[in-house]
Amino acid sequence: MRILIIEDDIGLNRSITDKLNSSGYQTDVAENLKDGEYYISIRNYDLVITSFLLSDGSGLDIVSQIKSKSPRTAVIIISSKTDSKSEIDSLKSGADDYLKKPLDFDVLLARIEARLRFGGSNLIEIDDLVINPDEEKITYKGQEIELKGKPFEVLTHLARHKEQIVSKEQLLDAIWEEPELVTPNVIEVAINQIRQKMDKPLNIATIETVRRRGYRFCYPKGS
C-alpha cells in the first residue's frame, strides 16, 4: 500500500512517515501543494494525507485532482483548525476523513486502516483481462498469469493510464523507490518479461512501443 503525505511541518511530516513506514506502508513525502500535485500526476496512491493549510495553498485544492484520477483513493485531511466549518468544508470537498492536530498517531493509523478497508476494489478489468493490484494477480479468461514484481507494476501502471503514452522516466518515477539509482533499460527488461510471460503465450498484445516517446497500453486493440 502506497501513501502520499503532504505536510509542510517538517517534524510532523517525518513523524507520520516514520509511523507509517514502521507499519509496513510505502510512503512518498511532499512539503507543499505543488510537490503534492506532482506526485499525484505520476503515481497512484491508495491513500493521501494532506494538511488543511499548506505554505502555498489549501490541501482541499488537491482533493478533486486525486478523486478525478482515482475515485477509490482515500483522502484524510489533517488540520489545526477546531471549528466545525473547516471539517464540513473538507468533507464536502470530497475528503473521506478529517483529523485534528495534534495527532494521536495510533488513531491516525486506525483511521488509515479503516479507510483502506472501505476503499473498495482496485481491480482493473478490460475485456477478458483482469488485473488485481492488491493481490498482484492477473487473470485472462479465467486463467491466472504468472507475472510478479516490477513487470507486474509496469503493466498495472500502463493499464491505469491506458490511451496515454508513458515515458521511461515517468515509469521509473512512478514505480522505483529510488529511480535515480537505476538505468532506463530496466523498463525494457520489464516490458520484455511482460511480452514473453504473458503476451506471447496468450497470443495477445498489451503494450505498444511508441518510438522515442515511451509505451502505451493497447489491449484489446492489439489483441
UniProtKB/TrEMBL annotation:
Instruction: Please indicate which superkingdom the organism of origin belongs to.
Output: Bacteria
Cross-referenced Gene3D superfamilies: 3.40.50.2300, Winged helix-like DNA-binding domain superfamily/Winged helix DNA-binding domain
What is this protein called in UniProt? Homeostatic response regulator transcription factor HsrA
The record's listing under PANTHER family reads:
REGULATOR OF RPOS
The reply on keyword DNA damage is no
Do you know which PROSITE patterns this protein is assigned to?
OMPR_PHOB (PS51755), RESPONSE_REGULATORY (PS50110)
Asked whether the UniProt record includes Zinc among its keywords, one would answer no
- The Response regulatory domain covers which part of the protein? 2-116
Q: Which residues form a coiled coil?
A: none
**Which residue ranges does the Swiss-Prot or TrEMBL entry mark as DNA-binding?**
121-219
Q: Where is the OmpR/PhoB-type domain?
A: 121-219
InterPro entries documented for this protein:
CheY-like_superfamily, OmpR/PhoB-type_DNA-bd, Sig_transdc_resp-reg_receiver, WalR-like, WH-like_DNA-bd_sf
Gene designation: hsrA
Keywords attached to this Swiss-Prot or TrEMBL record, sorted alphabetically, are: DNA-binding, Phosphoprotein, Transcription, Transcription regulation, Two-component regulatory system
